[in-house]
Design goal:
The strands form seven sheets. The chain has a nine-stranded mixed β-sheet. Strands 5-4-6-7-8 form a five-stranded parallel β-sheet, with helices on both faces. The chain folds into two domains: about 400 residues, Rossmann fold; about 100 residues, GMP Synthetase, Chain A, domain 3, CATH 3.30.300. About 30% of the residues lie in helices and about 25% in strands. It is built from 17 helices and 29 strands. By secondary structure, it is of the alpha/beta class. Bound molecules: 5'-O-[(S)-butoxy(hydroxy)phosphoryl]adenosine (WT7). 5'-O-[(S)-butoxy(hydroxy)phosphoryl]adenosine (WT7) binds next to helix 9, strand 16, strand 23 and strand 24. The site of 5'-O-[(S)-butoxy(hydroxy)phosphoryl]adenosine has 21 residues, from helix 9, strand 16, strand 23 and strand 24.
Length: about 575
């Protein structure tokens, strides 16, 4: 089959000569772009916000162009700097200090970003939680991280556990009247009283900054710990991959509850002082096209699942909008279908640039660059400073065109520095000096990487990572469910959907109402995005003799594939 290659984009790009830059590159040289280069004392909040606020030319530039269905706001770098100073003072007043874990459980809003940087300014570690989480998901994360302060809204407070959190000292409520003043702190009231001056806490490059919880195939979600040093790679990729320039208007659609929404929804654009569009609320095609048109977005970073929805929405909707401001499109989170790239060429007359990375990697690693040809279906090539390869299970590199573990030579600037409270889990990612991703892929003769699939049971639904164990654990809490096995089932729009196989306890009959009730139970107990779209009742769930659910077998059954080696199957 002849592969159609899309030639490099014409014009000037921030990374014009990939091969040459790669050859001469050192991350140490990149450090010269930062004010801390001399002192070594650093703070992400200074580089992303205060530095621009101190610059007479930059201070009144719009940092944040915010809109949601019921609110619009423009926030300058100067205002963001002052508001985050005020919030840092509020945190100090309540005894928060360097290294504390402070969590944000709220939708995107201007206050979110002020609070986020306030946390970094005192040297604390921010833990943003996706607003769709339900009580148990919130509890698991606050417990594991031993969070000290939680910032949330009146709408979400019902989902905040009121017990079993011995370390949680304060809850700050944003955007509403706080009725119970003994129990909660009122953001508004505190901010009015707080000083606009704050002496930022200078920290070391290796000090903690961010905790993102993410799912593996077993156990509870794990706290992936990132440090200030990551900014070096955020800065570099903002230049090379996002190709950002001073006058750009940039929009990253991801929620800051996920790593794309922090690394590329906060750090990357603001390290370069670029205007950043934030759109709250749920996805609708019209709304997204409107956001692009109204804000005259030039650079847009989104996900395949959203692009597929736009493709299926059709030309009629697209034709209503003037999207001529767009100049650069990118995608992340799941395989980018070649058909979507073809659609992008027609719809926008632009290439869509796929990028590959993970929560654990902290920043983009394998990417399609404007100055390189695109081979549709390929994730592209490693950025300068990154060595990627395909290795076997012992960490030995294997030749081109053979499938194996996608691996990255450790370390790199934005790499996670630990898994919170779980050193052995952290160690398990590394084999023979390689970080082993859990993805399978191959590399072609020209160094382009091609994604093949996950090697573990982790599910990728609409670009969001879901651990089957978490869903199974919730399912069996339902009184009707005896056992559960959960898999990702291929889906044309969502990539995968969550499918659960369950057995019922005695006295329960399989019915539509019961299955709907079970689905709702997961949705309201854990999280909407983790609720199985399909549930199938079985007489038994296949397990190994040691009692592990054989999800692989469930998947083979579902897909009508050969079942492979079942020698460990319990009878
Ligand atoms: C997993 C990581 C930080 C990115 C957002 C998701 C899958 C990510 C691609 C891509 C195919 C991709 C992988 C990876 N993935 N990007 N371009 N093509 N698959 O971060 O939630 O940590 O998930 O997402 O399977 O391991 P995440």
């Amino acid at each position: 089959m002849d592969m159609q290659v899309i030639p490099a984009r014409e014009g000037n790009h921030n990374l014009q000569d990939y091969e040459k830059t790669r050859k001469n590159f050192s991350w140490d040289d990149m450090k010269k772009n930062f004010s801390w280069n001399e002192t070594g004392k650093v703070n992400m909040a200074y580089e992303a916000v205060d530095r621009h606020a101190e610059n007479p030319v930059k201070k009144d530039k719009i940092a944040l162009l915010y809109s949601s269905p019921d609110r619009e706001e423009k926030v300058t770098f100067a205002t963001l700097s002052k508001e985050s100073n005020k919030f840092a003072n509020v945190l100090k007043k309540y005894n928060a200090s360097k290294g504390d874990r402070i969590f944000l459980f709220m939708p995107r809003s201007p206050e979110f970003y002020a609070a986020f940087f306030g946390i970094l300014k005192i040297g604390a570690i921010a833990g943003p939680l996706f607003e769709a989480f339900m009580e148990q998901a919130v509890r698991d994360r606050l417990q594991d991280s031993e969070a000290k302060i939680l910032i949330t809204t009146p709408d979400l407070i019902d989902r905040v556990p009121q017990a079993e959190l011995p370390n949680l000292e304060e809850i700050i409520i944003i955007g509403g009247n706080v009725e119970n003043e003994d129990q909660y702190i009122d953001y508004q009231q505190e901010m009015e009283a707080a000083s606009e001056e704050f002496p930022i806490e200078w920290v070391d490059l290796e000090d903690g900054m961010l905790l993102h919880y993410t799912s593996g195939s077993t156990g509870k979600p794990k706290g992936v710990y990132h440090v200030h040093n990551a900014m070096i790679q955020h800065y570099a990729t903002a230049e090379w991959v996002l190709d950002l320039k001073e006058e750009d208007v940039y929009w990253c659609t991801a929620d800051p509850g996920w790593v794309t929404g922090t690394s590329y929804g906060i750090f990357a654009p603001w390290l370069l002082g670029v205007t950043n569009v934030v759109r709250g609320g749920r996805f609708t095609p019209d709304d997204w096209y409107q956001t692009l048109e109204k804000n005259k977005v030039t650079v847009w970073y989104t996900a395949p699942t959203a692009l597929r929805r736009l493709v299926s929405t059709g030309q009629g909707v697209l034709d209503k909008y003037d999207l001529s401001s767009l100049r650069h499109l990118l995608s992340v989170g799941e395989p980018l279908n070649p058909e979507v790239i073809t659609w992008g060429l027609k719809a926008f007359n632009l290439r869509i640039h796929d990028t590959w990375w993970m929560t654990e990697t902290g920043a983009q690693l394998i990417v399609n660059l404007p100055s390189l040809e695109i081979r549709p279906g390929s994730m592209g090539k490693p950025i300068p400073g990154i060595e990627a390869s395909i290795v076997d299970n012992e960490g030995n590199e294997i030749p081109p065109n053979q499938m194996g573990n996608l691996a990255i030579k450790a370390p790199w600037p934005a790499m996670m520095r630990k898994i919170w409270n779980n050193p052995s889990k952290y160690e398990s990612y590394f084999i023979n000096g390689w970080y082993v991703s859990g993805d399978s892929a191959y590399k072609d003769e020209d160094g382009y990487f091609w994604f093949q699939g996950r090697l573990d049971d982790v599910i990728n639904t609409s670009g969001e990572r879901v651990g089957p164990f978490e869903v199974e654990s919730k399912l069996i809490e339902h009184p009707a469910v005896a056992e559960a096995g959960v898999i990702g089932k291929p889906d044309p729009v969502r990539g995968e959907i969550i499918k659960a196989f369950i057995t019922l306890n005695d006295g329960y009959e399989n019915s539509e109402e019961l299955l709907e009730d079970i689905r709702r139970f997961v949705k309201t107990g854990l999280s909407a995005h983790a609720a199985p779209r399909e549930i199938e009742v079985k007489d038994s769930i296949p397990k190994t003799r040691s009692g592990k659910i054989m999800r692989r077998l469930l998947k083979s059954w579902e897909l009508g594939l050969p079942t492979g080696d079942t020698s460990t199957l319990e009878e």
